[in-house]
Known about the structure:
Blueprint: E1 24-26, E2 29-31, H1 34-41, H2 48-55, H3 59-65, H4 75-92, H5 95-102, H6 130-141, E3 143-145, E4 152-154, E5 159-165, E6 168-174, H7 177-188, E7 194-201, E8 204-207
Helix pairs in contact: 1-2, 1-3, 1-4, 2-3, 4-6
Bound molecules: zinc ion.
Zinc ion binds next to loops.
Amino acid sequence: MNTVDITEFKGRNRFLSNFYAVNVMWEGEEYFSVEHAYQAAKYLYGSVIRSKIRAEVDPRKAKRLGRSPGIQKGWDNLKLSVMETLVSRKFFDNPGLRNLLLNTGTGLLQEGNWWGDRFWGVYKGEGENHLGKILMKVRGKLTQTCSTCTREVPLDPPKMAIFSKGEKSGELVFCSDECWNLAADSFRSISKIQIRQRHVLLGGLEDR
Length: 208
Ligand SMILES: [Zn+2]
């Protein structure tokens, strides 16, 4: 596993950039990249500028359109959580990108840039690097610890169990059939624990 620090999102690390072409949903509409969806989210649903951003193919032009007047009130308080939601969707919904992100291991992700952005990235050695921090946070959510062998495993799709015993309830994650079977055997010997297997999807559960 590569644990080298990444300080620019270009070349083979281009997939970390918000300009990377990948369809992302926002409020029921599909956009060509995280950048597109983020710029559109500045404006209220149904506004003309949103449809312009949505129709634009080039992320640089989408970014420029996002400087149009009419940005919704309180946007500054929303923008970090909007970005986190969009970046999460990008990586949770696309197995190829998810694996690329996981392969960055525990390395620093930093959006070094030449265009002077010290909020989302780092410019001339200074910056808050919020995009890099969000990427590292999302990366952390893409793995879970196997309840049997404690290995860190990718989230896709772990075998999960939900259990309840009296007031207590919780979730267990398993990396393999083997670990699942080992745990399931021990649950059967405890009469009051109910267990069911399920898929995990972002933002929702699906029983099976
Ligand atoms: Zn395991």
